[in-house]
Amino acid sequence: MRSPVTVDQARNNTVNRRTSTRLKYVDQVGDRLLLCCCALGALLAGVVLVLIAKEIFEGAQPAFAKYGLSFITSHEWAPPLEKFGGEGVIIGTLIASAMALLIGGPVAIAIGIFLALLAPTGVRNVISPLVEMLAAIPSVILGFWGLLILGPVLVSTIEPFLHDNFGFIPLFGEPQTTGASVFNAGLILTIMVIPIIASVSRDLFMAVPRELQDGASALGSTRWEVIRGGVLPTTASGMIAACLLGLGRALGGAIAVSQVIGGGTESHISLFRNGGTMASIIALQFPSAVSALHTSSLYYLAGLLLVIGVTANLLASWVGYRFGSAGGAMR
Amino acid sequence: MRFGHHDPEHEFDPTAPLLATGNLRRRHLTSRVIQGLAVAAAVAAVAVLVIVVWAVVSHGAKAISWDFITKPAPEGVGPNLVGTAVIVALATLMAMPFGVLIALFLSEYAGPRSTRPVQLILDVMNGLPSIIVAVFVFALLVANGGGQAGWKAALALAIIMVPLIARGTQEVLRLVPGHQREAADALGVARWRSVLSIILPAALPGIITATLLSVARAAGETAPVLLISSLAPGDAFSVNPLHELPNVPVRIFQLSEEANPEGFTEAWGLSLILIAIILALGLGSRALLNRSKRKMTR
Q1: With CB atoms 3.0 to 4.6 Å apart as the test, which of A146, A153, B95, B110 could cross-link to B115 if both were Cys?
Q2: In whole angstroms, how far apart are CA A285 and each of A81, A220, B145?
Q3: Inter-chain CB pairs, A–B, below 8 Å
Q4: Pick from B101, B192, B223: CB nearest A255
């Protein structure tokens, strides 16, 4: 039964409707406002990226105008003589990051396998945070440790051993007396890339469907055969992406490397001599650049680093997106 | 072992007895060896962590004293600690709103078409070497006569922190149960009200976790402060971000470049303080995250 509407109630209703239209108006404005704020934030992030590219390429303009692309292959870097060629540091960068990836990649993937597929949950819950903690050590402390503790050990033991036994390979040249060397830098970068590759590949392996592994086991595969036949092929693209992320990290490692590599700009491929990487030379020489051309050449290096680093990241993101059944683990 | 691979030499013979073929022992051995290697890799990583942390603790403990933490330059590093705190706090104030807004945009507003580019921007920002960000802020604000200043270093750190906060926030926003959103929608609650009063409060612990983790990262980030706030001597306390501020990472870096044993001791002491703060932030935020995740998924 509905009671008849009194005049009072009708008036109340119109008042309610009036406040509710005002409410609707406020809500509309509020919705728009929040959406605008959020979109603006996202937009600003894009703007910052564009600005970064613009500033760095503008700074590199004088050096690019003077040297063009021959900057990359010219090997003389002599600030007092106004001569700048990036070959030495580019080779240094390639060697140090290649070393980090060649050692760090397999080790990190093995850690990922251990954490995701072999370790019991209790062990995983302890080891996983510890591996991530390795990534939390500031690079300046890692570099300091590399300089004072790791360097002397390398010079007195591993470097002479490698030189004596494999000296015929040009990589293993004559060891020097100081601990600062490309080899040391490569090892420090290895320590820096392991946690990132390990945690990404752990997430990848965890996302491999359980049925696939159980199926392989049911066919009589051993643990390793399950991994090799079932897990690794389905996550190959993700592992490539993880290694690309590690590569980005290794290329950009500036501070730790500048502490342990000695800061040379000569072009050579001996692991045991001083050297420099692009990022570390920027960190070492940028604050005390002697001339405009010097600064500009450092911008040139930064530009190269930016292009290679962004490419590696985009590639990682693309590989993870395009091929990754477990692409979600990349995020 | 391959799946779906047809080997003509080993045709299936239904009459053959169901016994393991001769290489079963070898296959098990291979499996064991490789499992052992995987364990060894994990042990090695943990060992490196222990060795580094132990070196910092054992050398750094000698330097630590009350005077070391509170006094200015010749005796202590007080101003460096204060300076880093100011720079990182400023950076957090700059980065947190943007990080949260970007995450909100991605999870609440963006359609599939706008998600992808924004996500890509975040990925690229996240992978950007910190030295590049440092050079950028240097070129933008320091090189053109502006000079060094704490707030400029904070800006550089903020650029590094934004993608970390955004990603962490995005992950917790994903965990906010869908039925809470739907309930709000069904009651006719406007989107902005439900975001501000339901979704954000539910995600708050996760947002704080992500922020703490990014603070831990920023506190040890050296490249930006080396280029943008490195000239302060550290012999007097200073909290004014309009001037360059003494700070921890630059001091460690400078001391490691000088071959001076006393300086090394000071650098170890600073490293110990920095690592202790960072590990505490990491562990604290992890505990917070686990608690809130349990609460949200219950």
Answers
A1: B110
A2: 15, 60, 19
A3: 268
A4: B223
- Which residues of chain A does B283 touch, with a Cβ-Cβ cutoff of 8 Å? 129
Domain assignments of chain A as residue spans, ordered by start: 1-60, 73-330
C-alpha Rg value of chain A to the nearest Å: 28
Helices and strands per DSSP (H, E), number in chain A? 13, 0
Task: Note the pLDDT tens digit of each residue in B139-158.
Answer: 888 877 777 888 888 999 99
Q: Which fold has domain B67-297?
A: MetI-like fold (1.10.3720)
Distance of CA A280 to the CA centre of its chain: 15
Measure A260 CA to nearest chain B CA, in Å.
10
pTM value? Answer: 0.86
At residue A166, φ and ψ (nearest 5 deg) are -120, 25
| Extents of the domains making up chain B | 21-59, 67-297
CB crowding A107-134: b at 16 or more within 10 Å, else e: bbbbbbbbbbbbbeeeebeebbeebbbb
Q: Region A219-241: what's the mean pLDDT?
A: 86
Q: Tokens representing A197?
A: 């590759």
Q: With beta carbons under 8 A apart, name residues in chain A contacting B46.
A: 127, 130-131
> Other C-beta atoms within 10 Å of A268: how many?
17
User: Which among A27, A138, A221 is the nearest to B222, CB-wise?
Assistant: A138
Q: How many CB atoms lie within 10 A of CB A157?
A: 10
pLDDT digit string (tens) for A292-307? 888 888 898 899 999 9
CATH 6.20.20.10 fits A73-330, yes or no: no
What do you get for the CA distance between the two ends of chain A, in Å? Answer: 58
The mean predicted confidence, pLDDT, of chain A is: 83
Is A134 in contact with B45 (Cβ distance < 8 A)?
yes
Cα A239 to Cα A320: distance, rounded to the nearest angstrom: 9
Q: What is the sign of the dihedral through the CA atoms of B233, B239, B240 and B241?
A: positive
Give the CA distances from residue A251 to residues A44, A67, A310, B297, in Å, rounded to whole numbers and listed in that order: 26, 23, 11, 39
Q: How far off is chain B from A137, nearest CA to CA, in Å?
A: 7
Closest residue of A to B109, CA-based? A35
CB contact under 8 A, A45 and B122: yes
Is B193 close to A30, i.e. CB distance below 8 A? yes
Distant-in-sequence, close-in-space partners of A59: CB < 8 Å, separation ≥ 6 = A295, A296, A299, A302, A303, B135, B139
Asked whether the beta carbons of residue B274 and residue A141 sit closer than 8 angstroms, the reply is: yes
pLDDT tens track for A27-52? 788 888 888 888 888 889 899 999 99
φ/ψ of residue A81, rounded to 5: -95, 5
> Does B139 sit within 8 Å of A299, measured CB to CB?
yes
- Complex confidence, ipTM: 0.85
| pLDDT per residue as tens digits for the range B170-204 | 888 888 888 888 888 888 888 888 888 888 888 88
For residues B77 and B85, what is the distance between their CA atoms, to the nearest angstrom? Answer: 13
